[in-house]
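Lesson 9: reading folded outputs for more than one chain in a single document. The general rule is that every protein is listed as its sequence immediately followed by its structure tokens, and records are never interleaved. Here is the first one.
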Amino acid sequence: MSVQLDTLNSAGGLLSLLDEEERELQYYGLAQLDLVTDRFWTEISDSISKIEILYEDETFEHRQLAALVASKIYFHLGEFDDALSFALGAGEQFSLKESSTYVQTIVNHAIDKYIELRAQQDADSGLTIDKRLEAVVERMFERCFETKEYGQVVGISIEARRLDVLERALSSGDTKALLGYVQKDCVDLINSIHVQTQVLELLVKVHLQFQEPDYESICL
């Protein structure tokens, strides 16, 4: 079975495949729907429950694909919390290498949620963060390291109280320039004295790794 997606004028036929009993037909329908969500999201949204049922069915081999399609539909509906929730359920199917508005929006929403929860952990050490959310953030960090976007890593790692990532970023890029950026533009924006102190201590540690430490900068 093959569908000419360019000439498709409705998602109805693909949606009907989700009602089939044969798993391969359900998978094919989902795979094709994933390719046309931008064009037919309004129509697909009327059948979002069918997609959610497939995701919730633990015997369905392609649950993550169902989660990805559901996430894209909720994104188009402006329901970003639901879109993020299903994106987390999509696992590796949610690719950060894609530069679409959908991916950028969900990643930004994930980062904001992660930063919020990390701040809450200061007051509640027993608070746990969804491992899947942490995985998306870690993947985002790794992508930034691969593309050498160290400034972005520095900013997010400070907001997220991830000093381990901050130290790695300072050591990976132009260390002196990044140290200056953190000291001049970031430290004063940290609203937690405890975190601010930790960041300053880390900066001193990194400064002292140079053969000729800039003691004047350390004392600023």
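And here is the second record, again sequence then tokens.
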Amino acid sequence: MLIDLHGVPGSQNGFDNSGQQKSSPQWHTNSDNIARTNAIIKTLASKYSSQTDVVSGIAPMNEPASWFGNDLMAAIRQYWYDSYGNIRYPYGTSQQGGIVEFIADAFQPLSYWNNFMPWQSGFEGVILDTHYYGIFSQGGVSRSWDQHVQAACARGNELTSSPLWTVVGEWSTVFTDCAKYINGRGNGARYDGTLPGSTYIGSCAQWTGSGANFSADYKAFLRRFWEAQVTAFERGQGWMYWTWKAEVADEWSYSAGLKYGWIPQDPNQRIYPNVCG
């Protein structure tokens, strides 16, 4: 199990899934926010340090939004160092624990983290957590199915040159942003032009909802896209899928994928073995 602190006091990104939807994150603007967050991680690491058969990793913060400025990025980098001490040394001594620290890439290129916490300087048990979705831009949702597959395969090349062990900690087989509220509560989608500032590409009707209504061609694409991403992401240190079950959007759901066949019961099974060449 990976424990991921998805929301922190003041919000690290302003996203609704941080617990507070804001125009800009405020976590880094108040030292009390940072201190509270450090205390939470210290408590979690202390609680689970002897249960590594259950908890193998702790992610101190999910998806901090580095584009909000250098002050936030500086706070994030220091927080990764503070969390390293709290997670890797949970006993208050020089003895290391067995839980790994997962640091978010903060939406930066993997190369940004060159020379950050290098093993040559004594850092151990650090994994870079990157998330891959190709749908949160107009260009992304405008891609053809083949282009989505090609983009996923290209991500595998980036993973092989990452400066740290790297796991794709979130990804999905979706190719649209049609799922209800995926862009925030009450917001529409880029794909069908209902999100302000977006351009209509097509109707969302056939691409979201119950997998029982998905066409054979659509499910075949979802399987091919699944295999492309798994193939690419296993060129790094692995992956974790988002999410196990969605309320009204089976295209996001691992459990629905198993039920309707676009995700194999055995994740090592391939029917497109050369999908990435």
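What the second record shows: The longest strand covers residues 126-132.
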